[in-house]
Write a structure and sequence with these properties.
It contains 18 helices and three strands. By secondary structure, it is an all-alpha fold.
């Protein structure tokens, strides 16, 4: 996939500020800037600091974690970025801006930083509700530390630009300033540099760590699904649409899981699970069928076979998840969104047409022979798109399995999930009970009746996570590593989900043990003072509070 990511925008903004600093450094210090140039540079750099201040306001409160960044460094960075932005904004009012190369570079940096901020904000709604499965990932402390660290680096470069702008500031006798402009800008830039050094030092010593390596690969949130399946769709368009459609499907399910009453019915969730099972199976057949063209290395072919086996196991788990809804459950009359089912079916149809023929439909399952591998992979770039689509199927499946149990719990809590199982009917299960007043066949289901659904979807989540890891390894072994796989792996680690059931069980048990422990909440005893410091403190106390003389 070639989507522009958050890391691309940050890198471009950093390079543009480096260009501006180089242009200002090459300027002659003996010939100061004109008032128009100074105003243009100050205005553009003030916009940069305004956007950086927004980033520290959004992610700064989350960064001071017990294993994260010191709160004082974050507060120092936040306040000085704001003050330096105000100083530059005041400097921009002294003259009318005029064209300047350094100012144009800073204006481009402003545009890229605005794009990066909009990309992060696109994963949440106006009221903070999640609009994508990465909303909870962005609210984690690890991601906040990464954003604050990147903001500190950008602010450090912007501070050096501000110092150079102050050195080239023209003399203005019309206004008497309390302090020299260069001194005021340099003072705040030095404080920002100190905060940035402190933040970077805490992140890389004494235990080197990268807080959120997948954040640089974060794309824009999917707000609209791709167009439906149409005749004559090329294979490249179909595989791109598979990834885009499944991304929208995962975002839609994550958004519905946060609502009080989701607009999903039992039939739609069951059909979507069945489509997910078929998509996993078709993906397994697709990469196994084209294995010899994907790579000629026997070791890499073995990795592809492992990915195919993981996808087949995930398909079986999703079949069980689809069957878990067929236990006498139904939905109360409510608004539904059939786009959930249609988008899952579109992915299945596109994968089937890639494997079999352009006219394949769901009714042709098992009736047509697959196309020749050289008809599927006709160019070197086709392998990359094929593996990207193969990775998108289990990635969306894992997100789907994470949030569907929450949707079921919300439906039970609001009384929108009904059951016809006579064993749990509160008005009796005997045939004679049917003649009592108030007896109905359908009644609101309880949380106990959806426990088997939660178990089935948890198994599907673990299987899809394992298939997701396997497809990422297969793509790397073939020589087409996926940038999106880094983001998905980082999201799993941040939210505590892995593809290993034993690892998940150990992690849950460890968290429960920490919650039950009485020593976790007990504050640790402070370290004892050194002997010489204790004696000094004793003398100070004795001098300030002399003892009374007793008879």
């Amino acid at each position: 996939m070639t989507d522009v990511t958050w890391g691309d925008f940050v890198t471009l903004a950093f390079s543009r500020m480096e260009y501006a600093l180089a242009a200002l450094t090459l300027a002659d210090a003996d010939s100061p800037s004109t008032p128009g140039q100074h105003a243009a540079r100050s205005e553009a750099l003030a916009d940069v600091f305004q956007l950086l201040h927004r980033g520290t306001s959004r992610f700064g409160p989350l960064a001071p974690d017990p294993l994260g960044i010191a709160e004082g460094d974050v507060a120092r960075l936040h306040s000085n970025v704001e003050i330096l932005g105000r100083l530059l904004r005041d400097e921009a009012f002294y003259a009318w801006p005029e064209p300047d190369p350094a100012a144009s570079h800073l204006a481009e940096a402003v545009g890229f930083l605005r794009f990066a901020g909009d990309l992060l904000a696109s994963h949440h709604g106006p009221d903070g509700e999640p609009r994508s499965p990465y909303a909870a990932y962005l609210d984690s402390a690890g991601v906040a530390r990464h954003v604050v660290a990147q903001t500190a680096e950008l602010a450090s470069v912007a501070g050096r630009v501000a110092v150079r702008i102050g050195q080239l500031c023209p003399s203005d006798r019309r206004v008497i300033r309390s302090h020299d402009v260069a001194y005021r800008l340099r003072e705040r830039a030095v404080l920002i540099e100190r905060a940035a050094i402190g933040i970077q030092r805490q992140l890389h010593s004494p235990r080197p760590s990268v807080p959120a390596p997948g954040l640089t690969h974060l794309p824009q949130a999917a707000t609209a699904p791709p167009p439906p399946v149409r005749p004559g769709e090329s294979q490249y368009e179909a595989l791109r649409a598979v990834g885009g459609g499944l991304e929208w499907l995962a975002a839609h399910v994550a958004q519905q899981a946060s609502q009080r009453l989701p607009d999903a019915t039992v039939a739609e969730l069951s059909i979507a699970a069945d489509h997910s099972a078929v998509a996993h199976l078709l993906t397994a057949r697709l990469i196994e069928h084209t294995r010899d063209l994907l790579t000629s290395d026997p070791v890499a072919q073995g990795v592809v076979d492992v990915a195919g086996g993981a996808l087949r196991e995930a398909a079986q788990a999703w079949q069980q998840a689809a069957a878990s809804w067929k236990s006498g459950l139904g939905s109360a009359p409510a608004a539904s969104n059939p786009r959930l089912v249609r988008e899952a079916e579109f992915a299945v149809v596109r994968l089937g047409r890639t494997l079999f023929s352009p006219g394949w439909t769901r009714r042709d399952t098992g009736r047509r022979a697959p196309r020749a591998p050289h008809e599927i992979i006709t160019a070197p770039g086709d392998a990359t798109h094929l593996l990207a689509a193969a990775h998108a199927v289990p990635a969306a499946g894992q997100i789907l399995a994470e949030h569907v149990p929450r949707i079921g719990s919300a439906l039970v809590q609001r009384g929108a999930l009904l059951s016809s199982d006579p064993a749990h009917n509160p008005r009796g299960s005997a045939p004679s009970d049917q003649f009592r007043d108030g007896w109905t066949r359908w009644y609101p289901a309880s949380f106990e009746q959806i426990r088997h659904i939660t178990i089935a979807y948890d198994s599907a989540r673990q299987a899809s996570a394992a298939a997701q890891i396997a497809t990422a390894r297969a793509a790397e072994a073939v020589g087409s590593p996926l940038r999106r796989a880094v983001l998905e792996a980082d999201r799993r680690n941040t939210l505590g989900f892995t593809g290993d059931p034993s690892h998940d069980t150990r992690r849950v048990k460890a968290a429960a043990a920490r919650a039950r422990s009485t020593t976790v909440a007990r504050p640790s005893d402070p370290a004892r003072l050194p002997a010489h410091r204790a004696s000094e403190l004793s003398r100070e106390v004795g001098a300030l509070h002399p003892r009374r003389k007793t008879r």
